[in-house]
Every structure is written in structure tokens, then in C-alpha cells.
């Protein structure tokens, strides 16, 4: 069976529900970080003002001297405490979302499989009756996702406060106007603090999405007798990276992990059933509405193609100097799974003549 209109509609419905849930988490985390910064901002404003005056008078201190300064230590400790509280809040937001996405993914994948089977058939009804994963399997997936979230978040507060100290040290340059220097250092300190937010968002979103994919895979294996494999579906648009565009529509064995997208990747694995005749139904089935990424990309206006690929990749594709399959490169990641990323532009530049 190919992915016809109804299973694709259900896949899109699942994608929209995931985006909605993760969007709500984004708002919660951004709000929490903003409130936490307001608590420590006055202390950092005092530190940067005092430091800027000292630098103007005595020159730039060593990093060790800066770290040992009592007011800097106090500001770092306050920030670390605030960040540790934010880590707890992030876990409290990310874990329920991961659980919700795992449960909804399992249910919806059963519906997507059923929607590819003949209406009114006992086989379709059988799949629909088994939409829920067994409790033990569901609990295992949730525990694994929760453990990954907690492990990834653990070093966040220390890393963010180290970044704030680096910001002070880098900003303490001799010869600047003290007021300007203080303002710049305060801005850089907040950047270091908000770096924790960037990582928290990345961790919570990536692990929730991976939990969703693992639940889809688990559900698909329960119905492997009717499945022919899975198809890589990307949410095609200007925000979609070249790697995901290149993988869209590709077909894979059921045993193959994936989609092994980059961090925060929104791609999904859509189950594809065997043909109706393979399953014993002597009737014609609906045609697939999924086209490969290259075909869909060719339909875009040039302006949108440029937004997706950038000038070098697009020129290479148009002139046949870059192959579509070369747009994605698989890389290993320390402490995480392998993933496909957009092949860096520098890998293509030497192929494309200047002018």
C-alpha cells in the first residue's frame, strides 16, 4: 500500500498536535527564564558596573582574580541557584510532554496503519482494536525518555554559569568607556544565562520527538505482519533543512531505525502497509499522494528554493554539480545517536566555478 490521502491526513494531524504541544512548552520555558533573569539582573548590573570602573582604572584582571572576587562569586552562586531551579522546571515541563507524545504517537500510528486497509475489513478492525501499547512497553519508553532528559539537563547550570564568567572576562577590555563596557558585559552575561534556555529547549524538544519516533516504531513492530516498511516524511517548507528535504519520501525497512534526523528535527516515520493483494484483498487500492523531496522541491518558486538551499547549493543543483542524495550527511554524536545533517556548503564550493 502507498500513503493515500487519509493516512497522510492523519500523519499531518499528528504533526500538528506535536507542534502545538512543543509550542506550549516553548512559551513556558521562555517565560520561566525571563522571570529568573529578572531576579538576578540587579546583582549582575552591580557587578558589571563595578568591574567596568575597576578595569578603566587598573586594567583587565586575570580570570582567576575575577572568579575569586566576592561580588562575582555571589552573582555566580545566585545564577547557579536560579538555573538549577530552571532545570527542575524544565524537567517538569519536558517529561509530561514526552509521555503525552509517546502515547499519542502510538495511538495515531495504529490509526495510520488501519487507514491503509480496506474499509470494513476484519484486518482493519483488528488494528484499530490494538491502538494502545501494552502498559509495560509504554512505561519503558517513558522511563527511557525521562532518563535521557534528566541526564542531558544535569550539567546545564554549571555550563551556563561558566559561560557567564567567560562573558565577564572577555568583556573586561582596557580602554572602553566604563558605562559602555558595563552595558556590554551585562548583555553578554545575559547571553550566557540564556544559553541555558537554548540548551533546555533543544534537549526537551529533541528527546520528546525521539520518544514519539520510538513509540511509532514500537507500534509498527506490533503490526509488522501487515507492513512493508516505513516512509520518511518531512514537514516541507522554508524552515525545513536541505537534509530533511533530501530524505522526504524515501522508503525504509521496518527494522531500520529512524528517521535519524538532526536535533529538533520534525520528520516522522510513516508506516506503509503491504499491497492489498499481498494481504489477500483482490481489489484495487488508492494511489500514493507522496512524492519524493526532489519532485516536491522542483515545484517551489525560485525564491523559496533559495531560502531552503542557499545560493551555493541551489546553483550546484541547478547545474547538476550537486546530486540530490548528497544534501544529507550522517554524523556520529558523542552521547547521542547518529543523525543526518545538511552537508556543509564548504563541501560543495570547490565543485562550483566562480562566475
Polypeptide structure, described:
By secondary structure, the chain is mostly helical. It has two domains: 5-223, no CATH class; 227-355, no CATH class. Helix content is 64%, strand content 8%. The strands form two sheets. A three-stranded antiparallel sheet has the order 2-1-3. The longest helix has 54 residues, at 5-58. The chain is globular, with a radius of gyration of 25 Å. The mean pLDDT is 92.
- Mean pLDDT over the residues: 92
Number of helices: 11
Oligomer: single chain
**Which strand order does the major sheet show?**
2-1-3
Shape: globular
Strand percent estimate = 5-15%
Biggest β-sheet, characterized? 3 strands, antiparallel
Helix content: 55-70%
Task: Output the structural class.
Answer: mainly alpha
What's a quick, concise take on this entry?
With 355 residues, the chain is mainly alpha-helical.
Give the helix/strand layout.
Blueprint: H1 5-58, H2 63-68, H3 70-114, H4 122-129, H5 135-153, H6 156-171, H7 178-222, E1 227-233, H8 242-247, E2 251-252, E3 268-273, H9 293-298, H10 302-318, E4 328-333, E5 336-342, H11 346-349
Antiparallel strand pairs: 1-2, 1-3, 4-5
Which key phrases capture this entry?
2 domains; two-stranded antiparallel sheet; 5 strands; mainly alpha; 11 helices; 355 residues
Amino acid at each position: 500500500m502507498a500513503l493515500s490521502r487519509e493516512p497522510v491526513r492523519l500523519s499531518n494531524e499528528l504533526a500538528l498536535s506535536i507542534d502545538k504541544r512543543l509550542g506550549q512548552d516553548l512559551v513556558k520555558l521562555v517565560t520561566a527564564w525571563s522571570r529568573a533573569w529578572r531576579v538576578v539582573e540587579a546583582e549582575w548590573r552591580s557587578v558589571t558596573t563595578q568591574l567596568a570602573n575597576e578595569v578603566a582604572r587598573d586594567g583587565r584582571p586575570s580570570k582567576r582574580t575575577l572568579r575569586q572576587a566576592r561580588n562575582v562569586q555571589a552573582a555566580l552562586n545566585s545564577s547557579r541557584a536560579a538555573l538549577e531551579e530552571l532545570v527542575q522546571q524544565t524537567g517538569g515541563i519536558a517529561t509530561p510532554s514526552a509521555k503525552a507524545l509517546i502515547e499519542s504517537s502510538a495511538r495515531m500510528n495504529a490509526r495510520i496503519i488501519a487507514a491503509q486497509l480496506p474499509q470494513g475489513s476484519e484486518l482493519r478492525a483488528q488494528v484499530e482494536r490494538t491502538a494502545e501499547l501494552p502498559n509495560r512497553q509504554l512505561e519503558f519508553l517513558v522511563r527511557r525518555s525521562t532518563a535521557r532528559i534528566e541526564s542531558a539537563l544535569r550539567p546545564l547550570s554549571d555550563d551556563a554559569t561558566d559561560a557567564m564568567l567567560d562573558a565577564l572576562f572577555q568583556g573586561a577590555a582596557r580602554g572602553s568607556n566604563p558605562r559602555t563596557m558595563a552595558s556590554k558585559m551585562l548583555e553578554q552575561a545575559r547571553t550566557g544565562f540564556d544559553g541555558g534556555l537554548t540548551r533546555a529547549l533543544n534537549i526537551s524538544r529533541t528527546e520528546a520527538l525521539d520518544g514519539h519516533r520510538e513509540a511509532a516504531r514500537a507500534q509498527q513492530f506490533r503490526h509488522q505482519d501487515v507492513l512493508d516498511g516505513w516512509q520518511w516524511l518531512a514537514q516541507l517548507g522554508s524552515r525545513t533543512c536541505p537534509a530533511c528535504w533530501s530524505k522526504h519520501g524515501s522508503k525504509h525497512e521496518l527494522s531500520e531505525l529512524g528517521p535519524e534526523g538532526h536535533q529538533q528535527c520534525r520528520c516522522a516515520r510513516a508506516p506503509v502497509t503491504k499491497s492489498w493483494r499481498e494481504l489477500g484483498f483482490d481489489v484495487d487500492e488508492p494511489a500514493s499522494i507522496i512524492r519524493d523531496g526532489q519532485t516536491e522541491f522542483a515545484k517551489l518558486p525560485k525564491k523559496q528554493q533559495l531560502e531552503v538551499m542557499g545560493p551555493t547549493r541551489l546553483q550546484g543543483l541547478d547545474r547538476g554539480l550537486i546530486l540530490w542524495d548528497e544534501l544529507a550527511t550522517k554524523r556520529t554524536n558523542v552521547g547521542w545517536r547518529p543523525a543526518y545533517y545538511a552537508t556543509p556548503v564548504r563541501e560543495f564550493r570547490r565543485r562550483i566555478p566562480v562566475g
